[in-house]
Amino acid sequence: MTTLLIVIAIIVAIPLIYLATLDGNYKVRRSLAIAASQKNLFDKIRDFSSWSDWSPWLMHEPETALAFSDTPDQEGGWYSWDGKTVGAGRLTHEKFIGEERIEQRIEFQRPFKSVSRVWWEFEPIDEETTRVHWNMAGSMPFLFRFMAKKMPDYISKDYDTGLYMLRGELEAEAEVPRISFEGPAELPDLTALTIHFEGHLETLKKAMMEGFPKLGRYIDENQLTATGYPFTIYHKVDLKRMHFNCDLAIPVAAESGSSDFEIKSYPGGRYYKTTLMGSYEFLELAWYQAYAHLQMQKIKPRHKQPSREVYENDPATVIHSNEIVTSIYIPIK
């Protein structure tokens, strides 16, 4: 019995010893130039009542319960949130330093308790443009220290999304990512005319610019029938190397044939649909938010089944890039 207790104690102690060796601290800094005066940008950010218009978290749960202090735009002012998906917490203004800096304290209650520092810096570029810096520093609770190294990556994507959305609130013609989470969708089996690609992101962008027009011309010249929107189906993605194995495709009738391009069949199934309205430059953020939303909703993706990126309109036909519509389909269990 004594031996068994010793073994159990060792098994319990090993992960605790490992956690004790980890640095639980993290720091994040993201920046963006916005066509707004320092004062206008400062006033926008210090007014907590405006945050729901550009929060990268509240878009995951718009019905989140919000509460505000009597003076949410003054030192000591605060706002709190309480949602099933985004958790609960409070953000408080601790100090304003002129119109150059805002210091805040963020207190998380759920999904775990922690306190971190947040601060904003406002750097005038000229009278009409300001570079804003959004910073956060904190530490993970002891049992979550293993997450500390990943926190900057997670927070950076959220901060980037929020800064672009904030810019959209202040610049009438700014490019803005509008991301909506549509829910589960059933996709049918389909046949498509395809070009296979394997390589890095910048090469993929060039391949898309050249490949989709080639597919479209072939369909027109050979009087084939396109049966849906062009899409990319991602078989393997290595985000560390930004390396992609995928097919560029346009759906065609099942009986179609081609001597120049490969005809492939793709099985349908259950997917979760996320829609981006905005430039293709925001697709990386949209994919991140799509997977973050699944995690928040406790929906498990099927990692061995390929995801799809569907281009629902032609960028050449829209007046502004904010009108480009792209749907992301992630296979789910």
TrEMBL record:
Gene3D superfamilies: 3.30.530.20, Regulatory factor, effector binding domain (3.20.80.10). Residues 184-333 form the AraC effector-binding domain. SMART domains: AraC_E_bind. SUPFAM superfamilies: Bet v1-like (SSF55961), Probable bacterial effector-binding domain (SSF55136). This is SRPBCC family protein.
